[in-house]
Automatic annotation (TrEMBL):
Biased composition range(s): Low complexity: 726-739
MF-aspect GO terms: ubiquitin conjugating enzyme activity
Residue stretches making up the UBC core domain: 806-970
Disordered: region residues: 576-598, 700-752
Name of the protein in its database record: Ubiquitin-conjugating enzyme/RWD-like
Lineage: Eukaryota, Fungi, Dikarya, Ascomycota, Pezizomycotina
Species of origin: Lasallia pustulata
InterPro entries attached to this UniProt entry: UBC, UBE2O-like_tSH3-B, UBQ-conjugating_enzyme/RWD
Length: 1065
């Protein structure tokens, strides 16, 4: 049984004529909105409870997909995958695919071609029977029609790109007029086409009993549309031949072309023409890349028909080809608009009528009987509906091989690994990158970026071995490159990559990175910087590089036009404010010119180019020599050029569709819910309902702290209590800093480092000999209040809060719980001068990729605590190569429902002012974040647990986390962690401690050798620490992971030897 993916074309097994497109699948990991659609049908094999659950969550049950059926069969339904037949699979140039979901090797689509089956919508007799269905049967379908022979009904649509007054824009809305013909032959342009409705099935037809098949219900719906107008829906897609009904006033106030209004005629009509009147445009950037350019102000957002027909607009056509395309390129994406359910015309109707005339060798492909205009009052009724398509693709694979494939023979590469790379991509060696944050360069609404990355080693990927996670790279000899923004989205104009060396080096996937600024995708639309402008800017970059000067003046030195361009790229790529776009705004008052004859106005025949556009094109190839092939599709004669990558600025990606819409969220980093009561007017201290003094694992078992059922109490109540064995509120801070529970009391807790939850599977399930830090008498206090100043690198140092009596009482209570109940492997520090601050160290749990590595988090009890959870920050020491865990962001965000940064559910509850605690957060971080298979912690990935397609990605994620965790040990030993210096030294170096550094080195070397330490073998000669076996993956580490691991082991050994020499000295 084939798996189905979003945008797949499929058919019902019971009736192959009923075609649909997959809208959602159970594999979708993105958050789905709730589904509300009165047109949702009930499939006989889908229970009502499953249907209801889908409506509430928006996510199909496992093994089901949501299918939208193409016209004439309207509606959508949840359908079991085994009740569907795959018809075609949609891809675009630049998409990444695999031959199967479990494959490691992936490839990039470099060309597509589409053929299709067409059903004629109308026949020559359409005007002779006004009440019949708009689906003709007088001529059969046309088979295997090439997509490049077809076009959509109108010349311009949403998403089209244009150049006007030296600005590049994208159409975000179109304004049209609709002409209809009534049963008496009269023709009118309706006043408001939004008031045109199309008939649908009577109420209840989509909710018949389970015993009646979906195919029958869809057929009944179609049949009943022919004679029933009991239910209507807005005519979202109108086409010549579409049957509509409207209010009589909409006709009476219209513009009459033939005849006059007659109130006795029913307002039931057939659409004969849909005509473009104007467009709304989002202007992206002016032409700032050609010499001597001084573009004017941004053009108007709305362009009317006069402008469209003025000849001043150049439309960019992605399907135009050069007369002599490059021999290594497959051509282009052909038939981009051809998809099941779309309405099309022939580009050359006369030629098509001759070609498909029912004679010669094309007889089997059908006959096109062209409807003459004289039979339809001058209107073009030659319209076809695409029944189904067949797509072929050209693929370049990661190993540099190429192939032609049927689209259905490959699958989309879902959830692409951030570390995967492909031939032709430009990469940066992360360890050579220098980050500059100019002190005077403060981010505002008007400037762009708060940091500049200056990589010293940049190269081009030649080929890769994705199984071994290594890439073969040629390096540029002396790059002078400046990249703006945290997302590395914009290359500073004038950056120079330089000469490419001939030598090829094998590097690990995990030590290189690709940036949008350096590696656009095939299919991206881009500006081409002219040679003269490039040279002018490159001088400034080279001078800054030679003098090692800050790039502070870089942005300020650019022209206003360049600043406009970079601001646009920041909004669409750098996480800034999206382009404002007013959706649902009223259409402008665009008047239709008189056209009494009713003939179609073919805009394309009247538009001429003002001049050739040689500065804007489509990226069609990434060269192995660092040159990009750009197709100049706006030229009168299309041609391909090869340009250095630094002279190409991609401004439109295939993934940028959402960039043209306004962002509704001002703060996407924090999730809130009513259950958290953040900002509630209720004062938790004044509430009659007191908080239970309990600690609960998130999604796990309750831990009773401080005597089980004891409640949160006031100071007076504490003084009277005899059952409270924890520390009293009267204990002074300086006494608390030196006190700790006796060893026997602490040994009542778990005596081993906390292991991960049972659901993770990618690590060896054989539990190695454990080590309990609690068994060491020399262990530093797990919780301690220090009398030293808070460290200057504490993230919340500058967020001081006034400690009211109530807040202080709650903080002391939190301290008491942590004083007695911290799990093994956790350490917490606070400061008597800043009791609102905490610093937490968690030693990575055994049997996870994070084992024995230090993870440091800062927390802050703000003025709204405990109504709101504490502020949190993770110290990420990954050097910009990506997150070590899906919940732990490089910028410091900790994604956890208890912290209000992740939506809670039955298993993961949100923060409760009366029941949650700081200890619960710490335990959740150990048990729910630092787990065996962190891959599945990614948002929505829980649905992939146990699937074959996620097995390899999970292994790769875990091995990368395992290697990165060793880097955390290096960082902690080389950069003292304020407040925890003694703990780090004790953990890794001191002879009376666990000497974790020796264990990490020995176990890493065992993993490098592909085996495990034998029982009883010590990690190093002379070590007095407890013996442990080395953990291992189910499969050996890849070559790329081993490369990084060996580098880390060398550094760890150096640290160990330095410590031994220091001790000996």
């Amino acid at each position: 049984m084939p798996s189905f993916y979003v945008e797949d074309t499929c058919a019902l097994k019971g009736d192959r004529k009923i075609i649909g497109v997959v809208d959602r699948t159970w594999r979708d990991v993105d958050s789905n909105p709730y589904y509300e659609d009165d047109d949702l049908l009930q499939h006989e094999k889908v229970s009502k409870s499953a249907q209801k659950a889908f409506v509430e969550t928006g996510l199909p049950p496992r093994g089901h997909v949501l299918v939208s059926f193409t016209e004439p069969y309207s509606g959508c339904s949840l359908v079991p995958e085994d009740d569907l037949v795959l018809v075609d699979r949609a891809f675009a140039i630049g998409d990444v695919v695999k031959r199967s979901s479990s494959d490691v090797l992936s490839g990039t689509i470099v060309g597509t071609s589409i053929s299709c089956t067409l059903d004629p919508v109308n026949s020559e007799s359409i005007f002779n029977d006004e009440q019949r269905s708009a689906v003709p049967l007088t001529q059969g379908p046309l088979l295997d029609i090439a997509g490049e022979e077809l076009k959509l009904l109108e010349d311009h649509h949403e998403g089209d790109h244009l150049i006007y007054q030296d600005w590049v824009g994208v159409v975000t809305d179109v304004f049209e007029e609709v002409t209809v013909r009534l049963s008496n032959g009269s023709v009118v342009v309706v006043e408001n086409h939004d008031e045109l409705d199309v008939p649908v099935a009577p109420e209840g037809l989509g909710a018949l009993s389970h015993g009646k098949s979906l195919a029958k219900r869809l057929k009944q719906r179609l049949q009943r549309e022919d004679s029933s107008f009991e239910n209507l829906r807005p005519g979202e897609v109108l086409y010549p031949g579409q049957k509509v009904i409207t209010k009589k006033g909409n006709l009476r106030r219209g513009q009459w072309k033939f005849g006059a209004y007659d109130s006795s005629i029913e307002p039931i009509a057939i659409v004969v023409q849909v005509r473009l009147l104007g467009i709304e445009v989002v202007w992206m950037t002016p032409n700032v890349v050609s010499p001597n350019q001084n573009p004017g102000l941004e053009p108007p957002r709305t362009l009317d028909l006069d402008v469209l027909e003025s000849g001043q607009i150049t439309w960019y056509d992605l399907e135009r080809l050069p007369q002599q395309p490059s021999s290594r390129l497959p051509g282009a994406a052909q038939g981009l608009d051809v998809a099941a359910g779309n309405y099309m015309r022939f580009l050359d109707p006369a030629g098509a009528a001759v070609k498909y005339n029912g004679t010669r060798d094309v007889t089997a492909r059908g006959t096109f009987r062209r409807i003459p205009r004289r039979a339809t009052q001058g209107y073009d009724m030659n319209v076809f509906r695409v029944r189904e398509t067949k797509t072929r693709i050209d693929v370049q694979w990661q190993d540099l091989s190429t192939s032609q494939e049927e689209a259905m023979s490959v699958v989309p590469y879902l959830n692409v690994d951030d570390h995967d790379v492909w031939p032709g991509e430009i990469v940066v060696l992360k360890e050579t990158e220098e980050i500059q944050r100019p002190p005077g360069w403060i981010e505002t609404d008007n400037d762009v970026f708060e940091e500049v990355a200056v990589p010293k080693q940049v190269g081009v990927v030649q080929r890769t071995d994705p199984g071994e996670r290594v890439a073969h790279v040629r390096w540029f000899s002396d790059p002078k490159v400046e990249i703006l923004g945290e997302s590395r989205s914009v290359l500073m104009p004038g950056s120079i990559l330089g000469q490419l060396s001939t030598e090829v080096e094998e590097v690990s996937f995990y030590e290189i990175a690709t940036y949008p600024a350096l590696t656009p995708r095939r299919g991206d639309l881009a500006l081409i910087v002219s040679q003269s402008a490039y040279v002018d800017h490159s001088g400034a970059v080279a001078r800054r590089s030679r003098s090692n000067a800050s790039a502070t003046s870089a942005f300020q030195s650019l022209t206003t036009g360049y600043q406009t361009l970079l601001n646009y790229l920041r909004r669409t790529r750098g996480g800034g404010t999206s382009i404002e776009h007013t959706s649902g705004a009223p259409e402008p008052s665009i008047q239709s010119p008189n056209n009494a004859s009713g003939e179609s106005v073919l805009l394309s025949s009247t538009i001429s180019q003002v001049r050739d556009i040689d500065w804007f094109g489509e990226i069609v190839d990434l060269g192995l020599d660092g040159l990009l092939t750009v197709r100049l599709g706006a030229l009168s004669e299309v041609r391909d050029i090869r340009v250095p990558a630094e002279r190409v600025i991609a401004i439109v990606s295939g993934d940028d569709a959402s960039s043209y819409e306004a962002s509704d969220s001002k703060d996407e980093g924090v999730w809130t819910d009513e259950s958290m009561s953040i900002g509630s007017q209720e004062n938790i201290y004044d509430s009659d309902e007191v908080m239970e003094d309990i600690v609960e694992y998130e999604g796990g078992a309750r831990l009773d702290a401080d005597g089980g059922d004891e409640m949160w109490t006031t100071d007076d109540e504490d003084a009277k209590s005899t059952s409270d064995t924890s520390m009293s509120d009267d204990v002074a801070a300086d006494d608390l800093s030196s006190s700790e529970p006796s060893l026997p009391q602490k040994q009542q807790q778990t005596d081993t480092l906390v292991s991960a939850t049972p659901m993770e599977m990618s690590w060896n399930e054989t539990k190695p000999n454990e080590i309990s830090l609690l068994s060491f008498p020399s262990m530093p206090a797990q919780f301690q209040i220090l009398d030293t100043p808070a460290p200057i690198d504490h993230h919340f140092l500058n967020e001081a809060v006034e400690l009211s009596a109530n807040l202080m009482r709650r903080i002391r209570k939190e301290h008491r719980i942590m004083q007695s109940s911290l799990p093994d492997g956790t350490f917490v520090r606070t400061w008597d001068s800043r009791l609102d601050l905490l610093r937490v160290l968690i030693v990575g749990p055994r049997n996870t990729p994070y084992e024995l590595a230090p993870f440091v988090m800062d927390f802050h009890f703000g003025s709204d605590f405990p109504t709101a959870p504490p502020g949190s920050y993770f110290h990420s020491w990954t050097n910009g190569i990506g997150r070590i865990n899906p919940n732990l962001y490089e910028e410091g965000k900790i994604c956890l429902s208890l912290l209000g940064t992740w939506p809670g559910d039955e298993k993961n509850e949100g923060w409760s002012a009366k029941q949650s605690s700081m200890l619960q957060i710490i335990v959740s971080l150990m048990g729910l974040v630092l787990v065996k298979e962190p891959y599945y912690n990614e948002a929505g990935f829980d649905v992939l647990v146990g699937t074959e397609e996620s097995r390899i990605p999970s292994i790769h994620y875990s091995e990368r986390a395992y290697v990165m965790a060793k880097g955390f040990i290096i960082h902690a030993l080389q950069h003292p962690v304020g407040g925890l210096e003694d703990v780090i030294i004790w953990l890794y170096l001191l002879p009376d401690g666990p000497q974790l550094l020796r264990h990490v080195i020995a176990e890493s070397e065992a993993v490098d050798n592909g085996g495990m330490l034998t029982e009883g073998q010590g990690p190093s000669e002379g070590s007095s620490s407890t013996v442990m076996k080395a953990s291992s993956h189910m499969t050996p580490l890849s070559s790329g992971a081993l490369k990084m691991l060996r580098k880390h082991v060398l550094m760890l050994k150096g640290t160990l030897h330095k410590n031994l020499n220091h001790s000996a000295g």
